[in-house]
Specification:
This protein is α+β, with helices and mostly antiparallel strands. The protein has a domain of about 120 residues: Aminopeptidase, CATH 3.40.630.30. It has five helices and eight strands, in the order ββαααβββαβαββ. The protein has a five-stranded antiparallel beta sheet, sandwiched between helices. It has a three-stranded antiparallel beta sheet with strand order 6-8-7, covered by helices on one side. Strand 1 and strand 2 form a beta hairpin. Helix 1 crosses helix 3. The longest helix is centred in the middle third of the chain and has 18 residues. InterPro entries: Acyl_CoA_acyltransferase, GNAT_dom, N-acetyltransferase. Pfam families: Acetyltransf_3 (PF13302). GO terms for molecular function: acyltransferase activity, transferring groups other than amino-acyl groups.
Length: about 190
């Protein structure tokens, strides 16, 4: 009887461009990022402005897979952020079309977002990562509109968004949380 060979699966990240800043490597997700991402989502300092509760493993895994799918289907998505000095996964930044149930709707408009582990806050990493993502986005989307949503209590993210040209255009509620909607037109 013939034995059936066991396939060896190697993740293909060739569709995700790699961006590099002075201190960060922005790349596609790797399976080894999963445990660190789960730990990030378990930390109340990390998720306090994002969700009312931590994400469970299943939700974190779906988040990673959704980003990979965005790159494959849309040509954009989220990058995993790796600290060059340590090689540690410290967060994510990028663009998505999440088809949110929010008014006004932004379906079809790239939405930028960023999340960093609590231990990476206050080091300028978010500024570095968002700047690189926006430069890539301007080249990709030209002068088109991008948006972001931020909890109004998240003053650091609001300042960062405004630093890079995002302006508030609407206040609403999303998933029972107050939300500021911001927009920016690219400089492509």
């Amino acid at each position: 009887m013939e034995s059936i060979p066991t396939p060896t699966l190697t993740p293909s990240l060739h569709q995700v461009p790699v961006l590099e800043t002075a201190r960060l490597l922005m790349r596609g997700y790797k399976p080894s990022d999963f445990e660190q991402y789960v730990a990030m989502w378990a930390d109340p300092k990390f998720y306090r402005y994002l969700t009312p509760r931590p994400m469970v493993e299943e939700e974190v895994w779906a988040t990673m897979l959704r980003s990979i799918g965005h790159w494959a289907l849309m040509g954009y998505g989220f990058w995993a952020i790796e600290e060059k000095a340590t090689g540690a996964f410290i967060g994510a930044v990028g663009f998505a079309d999440p088809k949110r149930d929010i008014m006004p709707q932004n379906h079809g408009t790239p939405e930028i977002g960023w999340v960093l582990a609590a231990h990476a806050h206050g080091k300028g990493y978010a500024t570095e990562a968002v700047e690189a993502a926006i430069a890539w986005g301007d080249a990709r989307f030209g002068t088109g509109r991008t948006v972001c949503i931020i909890h109004p209590a998240n003053k650091a993210s609001l300042r960062l968004a405004q630093k890079f040209g995002y302006s508030p255009y609407h206040r609403t509620t999303y998933k029972d949380q107050p939300t500021v909607m911001l927009e920016r037109f690219g400089k492509g």
